[in-house]
Amino acid sequence: MSTIAQNLQAVDHTIIAAANACGRSRNDVQLLAVSKTFPPEAVVEAIGAGQRAFGENYLQEALDKQRAVAAAVPGVHIEWHFIGPIQSNKTRPIAANFAWVHTVGRLKIAQRLSEQRPADMSPLNICLQVNISGESSKSGITWDELPELARAVALLPNLRLRGLMAIPEPELDLARQRAPFARLRAMLEALREDGIAMDTLSMGMSADMTAAVAEGATIVRVGSAIFGSRTYE
Ligand SMILES: *Cc1c(COP(=O)(O)O)cnc(C)c1O
């Protein structure tokens, strides 16, 4: 077995253990393999091990990789997720080349993605990025702004609002890792009680996926635990 295949298996076991520990099913958690900075060959290797959903942060790198992967494994359906910061002049290729966008934090970006989503594609799945640690340097919106944005995004015709995403500050301790994930889960539940339909919590990375699954993550975004450490950002 290749290293990537072994790593995928190890991550799968981590998710299973975390899910079992809190009475959840492995099938309720989707593994998004974050392939940023890694070459198409690494993605193809992961595909060979059965992985189908990949996350990318940088648009041009992602488009080049998508082309190379499609040529290497023609006919295999890959689900690409955009998880990086979004500049408003880059929304058109994002709308045309991804199934999901996890990092929407402004209505203007959502409106452009909806307008630019090609008519022959299904609605673009959207997560709103929440600034869960409350730091001004971090991207994402605050709880105060969230209900209004969620309501507006839910009305856009070519988008499907799926849920919330966050990247908390790194913490080593499990209890401290769980706290911001619990807050994000509470926000999702509050919005749902308000009548906004959502089914997704995109939270948890290599270092904190166990805490995220314990708090209800439905998508964990895992890079280095699958592909190894990144040599540039
Ligand atoms: C890079 C990245 C990840 C994966 O991080 P790892 O620590 O390598 O698992 C997940 N989510 C986002 C938004 C990222 O930018």
Automatic annotation (TrEMBL):
DNA-binding listed as a keyword: no
GO molecular function ontology, one term from the record: pyridoxal phosphate binding
Names of required cofactors: pyridoxal 5'-phosphate
Keyword Oxidoreductase: no
Residue ranges annotated for the Alanine racemase N-terminal domain, each copy included: 7-230
Modified residues (N6-(pyridoxal phosphate)lysine): 36
Assigned keywords, A-Z: Pyridoxal phosphate
Protein family (similarity comment): Belongs to the pyridoxal phosphate-binding protein YggS/PROSC family.
HAMAP family referenced in this protein's UniProt entry, alphabetically: PLP_homeostasis
Function, as annotated: Pyridoxal 5'-phosphate (PLP)-binding protein, which is involved in PLP homeostasis.
Protein name in UniProt: Pyridoxal phosphate homeostasis protein
Phylogenetic lineage: Bacteria, Pseudomonadati, Pseudomonadota, Betaproteobacteria, Burkholderiales
